[in-house]
Backbone:
């Protein structure tokens, strides 16, 4: 009995999110207050923490509003579920590839890292023509490099 | 310069052709043709960029220089900085890109210069606030973190009010401030800036006003134009146009001597004679600085360039038109410039501290009492 | 009359027209590539054109400016990555329309109405620059704060079905914008000891991450990568249909020009306000707003392009730039020894006419280039996703790096990409957050300025809220907020039903 009563709050997305924002607003409010009274010796009117405090108050009310939305959904028995299946494997590989790309770019310079990255991403996303992958990744890297560094004076690593 | 532009134009054309052909390449799989195109592209591009060579200090400057102005566009620092940049470009043979990075009494822009590579390609053109940052507790930066290239000019501080203002003379303004302490509103560029220093001097003579910080001199003027505040302490070059057009009334000069162009406008020390000793301060010394770690030969090249810049006829016209005080004549070399900074720092820091407006005591940073 | 002839004499000056064309082509490409902003392009041009004559330099720069602001719409429509914050709104309807295979139609509408907006703004600049200036000066810091706040509330109500979710997205954006050294007192806030955060969170990496990278991630996680982004149907869009919206467009242009004239507000606010208005005044859009209504594109594009003329007004008459691009144009003036300010229109009328002429010529090129190139560029979306997505990712990385040459910005972009992904998956629109990040700093400093100004008055509340513009803005905000609270909404719709019955 207790289980089924507790569940809706935790599974309802709006409720979950509202709790997250609730915590964030309280945190921001406490941060602003402690910083204001602790660090700067200024009146509130000039304090850098006036605005964050204001945001936290707004966020507080909004999280309550969101929570009430969630309650209404539970009451009316609406379930907001995403039907789209998430292909986690591809997503996580892509995210990791991005991370690796960002990390190695300053080390092995722009063009090689970009060739590797585009090559891998093309393969990950289902391209199987090898010659095409090599060709496209080199072409794109070179074009982007020259577009930015020669034309626009952007010092790419 | 011309070849650079030419190279860019060629590259643009090559890029255009390639981008337009891209679609054919991808869609129609004409591999041979596309490989030829790539080859042409790479050849063309390497041809265009063949002018890059390993960098060393003697070849400085090889690429455009960024001049950071830590105040918003249109204020005096911006105006003088840009003017100097134009004349420096001539002798450096490279462009100087001016970037305005306003906020927090000029500390944000100054920090950017310190954070960037100390290769002399990022220079700072700033007003006085570096001398007060530490005392004000704004940042840990001071003039000691930079090397002076040139101390250009002091822009006279003037007191202006809206054209429809009830004040017509400085005396009326001063009287009203005395009668209604804390009620007369003034805009200024932030704690530690020249407007703030002046306000503190006013406070010494029982003149108390309500102050509101804006991001730069031009925003302070807009506040006066829009009747948000009653008056501001501005730099003469910033407001010259508005005085000519009649949008602002010039009612006083914060100095001991009247402006040559406006001999009828009284100075602050004429109204309050006791303020004479403070009105000698160069409130807005504008200088070009680089990170102190910039190689000495690069600094030397920059110095030579500024020295020839301030001899240009256009620059001299600019100085006299705006009633600027040419400080580089008084402080021509690095030693005298540093002496100027340390004197300035000590006078102003102690002034701020004694007024109770400072967070830290100047003693903490070994700044001696004047 | 002689002024009129002077301006149009530039149209016959082949050299002058050519300089505008160079700028226009550059603007088209730069604006369309996410991460390359018009601001950057203009800054670069300044360094190239400093030896040219003033009029030639102005011609090129106006070309970049006018066409660059428009071409931000191209990437918004085709790949849902706005080229600049002011094109965010265009993506709301443009991208859905493109996905339905009508990218060509969306681009054509964007082109025509960017043209209308730009022309309108420039004509206003030409004819009534002075009165607009004095009106803009009446805006106090409180009004700026409220205007930005109003912008945020309208976005909140526009972009998601759930109003509180939209506003939460905006609040998170404001929270993000307060990170870094505060612009009034110089105190570092919310940096958590991370040194790189002190300079604050840059708008460009945030924008690219929230829109660009998160779009890529959403696409990857949804699968079906074999598909093309969309099919392109070759439908003929009749000029007659397009011009139906002209009257409304002029109305949005008025909004755009005026908001543009307020320093600091600019394109993003203008386009959101215009979009909000469009939603209110147009009862029967061709498709629901947010699903590809051309009315939305019309509103966004007319207003953000009308901002150009507007932003030039305070730049020329007060030497206070209305946005980042005009700040750079201001420097071009100084470089060439001109002094914008209250005397400018009187002292250098020929320069003023040259600017107007360059702007008008650029408008013509905008129309030509847009109509010629739109169908060509439109084909991008027929490229399969599995090829497009990696390239877009690299562009995101390079684009976020390009602004400040900082690797840290790339990391920020990546973080925002992940945040954006989860926001989208949970039904939070990223548009309010983006707008909030853009406007946060200005709201913060103006709010404090307003409090500071009012605190010396004897009656604090009346000083803060007493001015007429302030009252109007507050009323607008209250109406927007309350009309979107579910309970109130129900009452209103019930009332309507009752009266109908």
Residues:
């Amino acid at each position: 009995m207790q289980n089924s009563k507790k569940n809706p709050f935790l599974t309802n997305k709006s409720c979950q999110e509202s709790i997250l924002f609730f915590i964030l607003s309280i945190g921001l409010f406490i941060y602003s207050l402690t910083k204001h009274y602790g660090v700067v010796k200024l009146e509130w009117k000039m304090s850098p923490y006036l605005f964050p405090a204001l945001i936290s108050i707004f966020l507080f009310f909004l999280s309550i509003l969101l929570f009430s939305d969630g309650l209404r959904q539970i009451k009316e028995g609406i379930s907001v579920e995403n039907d789209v299946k998430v292909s986690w494997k591809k997503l996580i590989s892509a995210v990791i590839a991005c991370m690796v790309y960002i990390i190695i770019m300053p080390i092995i310079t722009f063009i090689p890292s970009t060739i590797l990255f585009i090559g891998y991403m093309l393969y990950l996303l289902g391209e199987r023509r090898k010659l095409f992958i090599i060709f496209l990744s080199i072409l794109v890297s070179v074009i982007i490099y020259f577009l930015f560094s020669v034309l626009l004076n952007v010092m790419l690593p | 310069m011309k070849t650079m532009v030419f190279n860019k134009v060629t590259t643009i054309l090559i890029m255009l052709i390639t981008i337009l052909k891209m679609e054919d390449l991808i869609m129609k799989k004409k591999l041979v043709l596309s490989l030829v195109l790539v080859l042409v592209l790479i050849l063309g591009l390497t041809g265009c960029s063949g002018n890059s060579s390993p960098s060393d200090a003697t070849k400085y400057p090889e690429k455009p220089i960024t001049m950071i102005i830590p105040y918003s566009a249109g204020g005096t620092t911006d105006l003088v900085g840009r003017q100097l940049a134009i004349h420096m470009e001539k002798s450096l043979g490279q462009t100087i890109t001016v970037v305005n990075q306003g906020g927090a009494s000029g500390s944000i822009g100054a920090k950017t210069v310190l954070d960037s590579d100390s290769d002399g390609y990022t220079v700072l053109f700033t007003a006085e606030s570096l001398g007060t940052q530490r005392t004000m507790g704004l940042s840990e930066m001071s003039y000691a973190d930079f090397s002076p290239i040139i101390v250009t000019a002091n822009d006279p501080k003037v007191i202006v009010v809206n054209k429809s203002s009830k004040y017509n003379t400085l005396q009326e303004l001063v009287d009203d401030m005395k009668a209604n302490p804390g009620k007369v509103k003034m805009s200024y560029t932030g704690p530690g800036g020249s407007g703030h220093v002046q306000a503190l001097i006013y406070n010494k003579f029982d003149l108390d006003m309500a102050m509101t910080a804006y991001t730069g001199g031009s925003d302070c003027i807009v506040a006066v134009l829009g009747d948000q505040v009653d008056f501001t302490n501005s730099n003469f070059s910033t407001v010259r146009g508005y005085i000519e057009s009649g949008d602002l009334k010039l009612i006083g000069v914060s100095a001991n001597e009247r402006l040559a162009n406006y001999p009828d406008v009284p100075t602050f020390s004429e109204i309050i004679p006791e303020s004479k000793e403070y009105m000698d301060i160069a409130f807005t010394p504008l200088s070009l600085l680089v990170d102190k770690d910039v190689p000495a030969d690069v600094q030397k090249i920059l110095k030579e360039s500024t020295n020839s810049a301030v001899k240009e006829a256009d620059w001299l016209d600019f100085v006299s038109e705006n009633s600027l005080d040419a400080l580089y004549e008084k402080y021509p070399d690095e030693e005298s410039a540093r002496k100027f900074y340390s004197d300035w720092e000590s006078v102003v820091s102690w002034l701020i501290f004694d007024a109770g407006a400072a967070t830290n005591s100047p003693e903490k940073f070994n700044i001696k009492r004047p | 009359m002689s002024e009129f002839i002077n301006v149009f004499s530039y149209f016959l000056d082949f050299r002058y027209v050519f300089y505008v064309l160079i700028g226009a082509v550059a603007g088209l490409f730069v604006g369309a590539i996410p991460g390359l902003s018009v601001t950057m392009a203009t800054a670069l041009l300044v360094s190239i054109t400093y030896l040219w004559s003033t009029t030639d330099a102005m011609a090129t720069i106006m070309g970049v400016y006018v066409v660059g602001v428009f071409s931000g719409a191209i990437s918004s429509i085709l790949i849902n990555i706005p080229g600049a914050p002011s094109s965010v709104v265009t993506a709301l309807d443009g991208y859905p329309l493109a996905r339905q295979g009508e990218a060509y139609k969306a681009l054509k509408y964007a082109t025509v109405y960017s043209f209308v907006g730009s022309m309108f703004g420039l004509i206003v600049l030409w004819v009534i620059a002075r009165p607009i200036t004095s009106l803009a000066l009446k805006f106090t810091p409180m009004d700026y704060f409220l205007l930005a706040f109003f912008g945020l509330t309208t976005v909140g109500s526009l972009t998601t079905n759930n109003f509180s979710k939209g506003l939460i997205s905006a609040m998170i954006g404001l929270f993000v914008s307060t990170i870094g050294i505060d612009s009034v007192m110089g105190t570092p806030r919310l940096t958590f000891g991370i040194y790189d955060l002190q300079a604050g969170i840059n708008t460009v990496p945030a924008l690219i991450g929230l829109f660009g990278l998160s779009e890529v991630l959403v696409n990857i996680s949804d699968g079906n990568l074999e598909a093309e982004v969309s099919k392109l149907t070759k439908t003929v869009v009749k000029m007659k249909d397009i011009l139906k919206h002209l009257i409304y467009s002029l109305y949005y242009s008025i909004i755009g020009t005026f908001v543009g004239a307020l320093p600091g507000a600019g394109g993003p606010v203008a386009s959101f306000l215009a979009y909000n208005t469009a939603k209110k005044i147009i009862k029967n859009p061709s498709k629901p707003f947010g699903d590809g209504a051309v009315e939305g594109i019309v509103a966004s594009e007319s207003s953000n392009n009308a901002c150009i003329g507007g932003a030039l007004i305070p730049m020329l008459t007060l030497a206070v730039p209305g946005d980042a691009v005009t700040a750079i144009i201001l420097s071009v003036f100084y470089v060439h020894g001109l002094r914008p300010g209250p005397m400018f229109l009187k002292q250098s009328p020929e320069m003023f006419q040259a600017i107007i002429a360059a702007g008008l010529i650029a408008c013509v090129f905008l129309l030509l280039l847009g109509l010629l190139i739109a169908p060509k560029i439109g084909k991008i979306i027929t490229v399969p996703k599995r090829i497009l997505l990696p390239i877009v990712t690299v562009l995101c990385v390079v684009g976020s790096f390009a602004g400040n040459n900082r690797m840290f910005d790339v990391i920020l972009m990546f973080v925002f990409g992940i945040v954006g992904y989860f926001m989208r998956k949970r039904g939070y629109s990223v548009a309010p957050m983006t707008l909030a990040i853009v406007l946060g700093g200005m709201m913060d400093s103006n709010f404090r300025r307003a409090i500071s100004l009012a605190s010396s008055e004897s009656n604090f509340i009346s000083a803060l809220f007493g001015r007429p513009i302030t009252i109007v803005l507050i009323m607008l905000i209250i109406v927007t907020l309350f009309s979107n609270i579910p309970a109130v909404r129900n009452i209103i719709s019930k009332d309507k039903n009752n009266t109908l019955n």
User: Anything to note?
Assistant: The mean pLDDT of chain C is 80. Chain C has one domain: 2-500.
